Amino acid sequence: MKHTVLSVPERLEAFRNEMKAQGLDAYIIPTSDPHMSEYPASCWKYRKWISGFTGSAGTVVVTADKAGLWTDSRYFLQAETQLAGSGIDLYREKLPDTPSITDFLITHLKSGATVGYNASTYSIQDAASLSTEMKKHGIKTDGSKIIADAVWEDRPALPSGKVFEMPLEYAGTATPEKLSRIRECIGNAGADYTVLSALDEVAWTFNFRGSDVAYNPVAVGYALIGEERAVLFMDEKKLPAELKEKFEGYGIELLPYEELGIELKKLPANSRFLLDKANTNASIAESLPEGSVIITDISPANVLKSIKNDAELDGFRSAVLKDGIAMTRFFKWLEETMSRGEKVTELSAATKLKAYRAEQPLFLSESFAPISSYGPHGAVVHYSPTPETDTELRPDSLYLIDSGGQYLDGTTDITRTIALLPEPTDQMKSDFTATLRGTIDIAMARFPKGIRGCLLDAYARHALWDAGINYLHGTCHGIGHCLNVHEGPQSIRMEENPVKIQTGMVMSDEPAMYRAGEYGIRTENMIVVKDDIKTQFGEFLSFETITLCHIDTRLVDKSQMTAKEIDWLNNYHEEVYSALSPHLSEEERGWLRRKTLPI
Amino acid sequence: MKHTVLSVPERLEAFRNEMKAQGLDAYIIPTSDPHMSEYPASCWKYRKWISGFTGSAGTVVVTADKAGLWTDSRYFLQAETQLAGSGIDLYREKLPDTPSITDFLITHLKSGATVGYNASTYSIQDAASLSTEMKKHGIKTDGSKIIADAVWEDRPALPSGKVFEMPLEYAGTATPEKLSRIRECIGNAGADYTVLSALDEVAWTFNFRGSDVAYNPVAVGYALIGEERAVLFMDEKKLPAELKEKFEGYGIELLPYEELGIELKKLPANSRFLLDKANTNASIAESLPEGSVIITDISPANVLKSIKNDAELDGFRSAVLKDGIAMTRFFKWLEETMSRGEKVTELSAATKLKAYRAEQPLFLSESFAPISSYGPHGAVVHYSPTPETDTELRPDSLYLIDSGGQYLDGTTDITRTIALLPEPTDQMKSDFTATLRGTIDIAMARFPKGIRGCLLDAYARHALWDAGINYLHGTCHGIGHCLNVHEGPQSIRMEENPVKIQTGMVMSDEPAMYRAGEYGIRTENMIVVKDDIKTQFGEFLSFETITLCHIDTRLVDKSQMTAKEIDWLNNYHEEVYSALSPHLSEEERGWLRRKTLPI
After folding, report:
1. Does the distance separating the beta carbons of A468 and B537 come in below 8 Å?
2. Set of chain B residues whose Cβ sits within 8 Å of the Cβ of A457
3. CB neighbours of A517 closer than 8 A, spacing ≥ 6?
4. How many Å from the N-terminal Cα to the C-terminal Cα in chain B?
């Protein structure tokens, strides 16, 4: 096999030739992988391969004589640079003059044309709406032609990372019990089977963790679960012998990863499948036996996984304690290093923090690429420093660091913003206080059982909105247990999400504000949903904040806070000091004491 | 014609005979009328006629040997009483053991059976889902057989109330301009026609008001609007000659009410109709010409109507001033009458308030049946006194009055809760203060342009939730301009509603709490959405509170409020006094001054 690396125009040419050979007039290449992962493995980075664009979101469309990349405002500058000379035009999403992909296809194709896409990179729902939209204009769609595989000259192999068993001590619930709960959900939905395609759902259900993808300890695989059967589709070389034996004992069948489609086709005709149409790839739907019915709902494993058991909650509490120790050492080191006038950059700071985390027991890896951002970089919402952008931290602005760890007993996600300058400006204090009030108001919320997360979002934004400020991302996302740092199905955000907030869910609490060209501010804690009081008006839930790390009180303007908010902050700091101090040196304790004094 | 009034069992027998004659195995009789009105005219009260049940919500299902009424918890007691001996079983909705109507039909019908309903009482959407559900069990549905009309022995005629022109001075926008805006919406949606079926949309578009229905100044009619045509389907005897002439001048065709279906069938085949499937009756969909496509969206007249023009807003401000004068006189009268030891009841109080309103210029009627409720009656959310329930107001509890007026220049809706006892209890004060804080926090809200109402609902509930209290109805509904006191499409409530809150919308602001067996508390003001500041974070909107009536400060516990909330209340009272006092007698002024002193 020849391994010459082609240029993007050469790839496009080869791609177009193959498109033509397979009778397609256009082809859509989204970012998704077959598992709808946030971080696709390299072998599925089709869109990056065809375009050279490395952002985390974007879709390429290729026709016989045009090619375009659609991406959002976070990536306009980066895409412009990376697409230069590629022959691919940049389509800036959500600008008034930018046509949608549908509009583009309608304009550039004639009735009777065919648009191709790889069904395994499209959700069932998106594939259906693409087909409906195109049909209106006499254009056909075909999800069965996988052009890229034929022309990608050095496509990486499927990842072959090893898998290890998640000890029951940390997982809390054994696989047979999880399978039986999933089966109960399948039955309640009136279905016969479900397919787990999200990698974290597979890892959670079968109590293993993997190493196929950066930051997310998952392994490439699928599962098929029915009343009588549980089949794990995974390269058996990944699995340790003891785990294979355990699976055998549980009656779990192990089949090669590639055989999901074959196995689905063998199931009885007219079977009923419980599948989440928005998060299951369309090639799975196309592999179902004749007469199958899809009952669409959130995957049962996704729902069950989001409600943490006691062992998982204990693990989270242990993980945030370790994280708090690392964060305290990091901020002390940062303050002292900078005050000695030694150079610290965004990257060197992140490296130091990782080293402090790595000293802690059961540390596996970071849970995402840290957002270590000085001054104006803090205002770039998804900024993550690279050697090209790395900037020195200077004592004249704010520093925001959003980071987390994967520990065997839990996953963490924490953001703190600190003043690097001795005297923060009034605007900084007022911005910081309004944002912090959001974090605190979510933390203190009591709310009726059964409500959707979006109803609480205004708690996070109230003080910011009052100041004429808003942020455009969500406030709270679910956090996996030694799994993906972003998980569903729940959320607290402005967008509608029908999922109810339930006791045992673990989430982030991260209101924010971004002053373009100046700085970004975010104080992010982890919260656990717990039962609160029961009154004649019903049952109420509330949150427990579990993150243990001081908040920079030099940035707090007490006069803008309510008495309850001030109490919360002072109590929180007392709790942080009590929990962390037994694990710190005397010097560290003294330093943390000063950082946690009441305001 | 014989006019013997039959008993419910006799009606059921006649109904079943007709059902059988027409080949139906079951029949569903909902509360809706062909216009999906909140208050159906008597001729459409099919469900009340067949069952004797007079509640505002409920559905009757009749089979050959069973009959049931499904209604919600507000009406369990009333329905039990009214259904006694009728042969109709009560099905209590939302109780765990209550089967749904679908379940009931599946259980009692065999595959091959046919369920009838009157398509004009079912929305397109509900008819479609009924058909889908029944099909799954081999049961057919038929919306074309109108059983009740054949057997209803003394069915009232269609209402023939007179219509008057809404002066342009109050309407603000002339009909040709409204038609052209509706046509723009039709064009933007890619449609050819729309049908207005909601009576308030018809009245708004054609700038008339009617008298066919209690409280809502509307008239029975439909409209068909396309690029070239505007047809009003209405009994021409309703219309004054001058208005008919005006319509003729505008090129508006006038056809009999009954001819909508005939006219729709005459339209060109393959026409595209912009219809709100959730709010348009299914018989309209069935009358569309061959090959028609329905583009579903909120009716353009509904959206346009919700955004008030300057003349309408000026009218609202005039109406709330008149309402405030009436409310002040009423509360002064109530206080003085009760302190003299004279008997006042819920009904006599409501009558007095109506009389004060009626003294005001341009008063037409009340805008709904007043909720005049003493003590425990206040905790019954939809209570409205009747001679049977009428209770004397005694100086030992709270009194809640929710009422409103239809004035030619605007519609009002206001609730106040006052202490009848000299020393309210701590619980009363704490309940009242938490509820009032909700009203104030909505009133003070600043929020980004473009958000959905449900995101603001937590502002209304924050203080209540903190106290372990909740209320199960919405917080803010739209209010028509000399039209329905409840109108859409916007709302602020826990349920998802995709409609964005926009400048010019007029709404209620009515957080509440209901302590069963003790009292209910609600402070309701009218608010207008207005432009607020524009910052680097975007455009913001806020509310202007326009209702002018004092709030009982004896029930306010200042220590539970924030400084901003206290300021709001004191400023509001200053505004109420300044606005009302020039219109009051010296004695009334003095009384109001005392009621509006700062806390």
Report:
1. yes
2. 455, 458
3. A376, A379
4. 68
Question: Which burial class, exposed, middle or buried, applies to A260 when counting CB atoms under 10 A from its CB (0-12, 13-18, 19+)?
Answer: buried
The answer to whether residues A533 and B468 touch, using CB atoms and an 8 Å cutoff, is yes
The count of other CB atoms within 10 Å of the CB of residue B471 is 22
| Structure confidence by residue, pLDDT tens digits, B208-258 | 999 999 999 999 999 999 999 999 999 999 999 999 999 999 999 999 999
pLDDT of A68: 97
pLDDT in tens, B320-361: 999 999 999 999 999 999 999 999 999 999 999 999 999 999
Nearest Cα residue to A532 out of A521, A523, A524, A543? A543
pLDDT above 80 (res A3)? no
Rounded distance between C-alpha atoms, residue B394 and residue A339, angstroms: 73
Interface residue B494 vs chain A (CB under 8 A): yes
Phi, psi dihedral angles at A28 (to 5 degrees): -110, 130
- Residues in Cβ contact with A411 at an 8 Å cutoff, skipping those fewer than 6 apart: A316, A319, A367, A404, A405, A479, A480, A481, A482, A483, A484, A485
From residue A387, how far is each of A347, A348, A382, A392 by CA, in Å? 8, 10, 16, 12
Give yes or no for A535 touching B (CB within 8 A). Answer: yes
**pTM for the whole structure:** 0.94
Q: What secondary structure does DSSP assign to A505-529, as a single string?
A: BEEEE--EEEETTTEEEE-BEEEEE
User: Position of tokens 């009952």?
Assistant: A295
C-alpha–C-alpha distance, residues A240 and B442, integer Å: 59
C-alpha span between B507 and B439 (Å, rounded)? 12
Give how far A367 is from chain B: nearest CA, Å.
30
Q: Which of A448, A494, A535 sits opposite B455 (nearest CB)?
A: A494
pLDDT band at A516 (very low <50, low <70, confident <90, very high): very high
Q: What is the pLDDT of residues B422-441, one digit of tens each?
A: 999 999 999 999 999 999 99
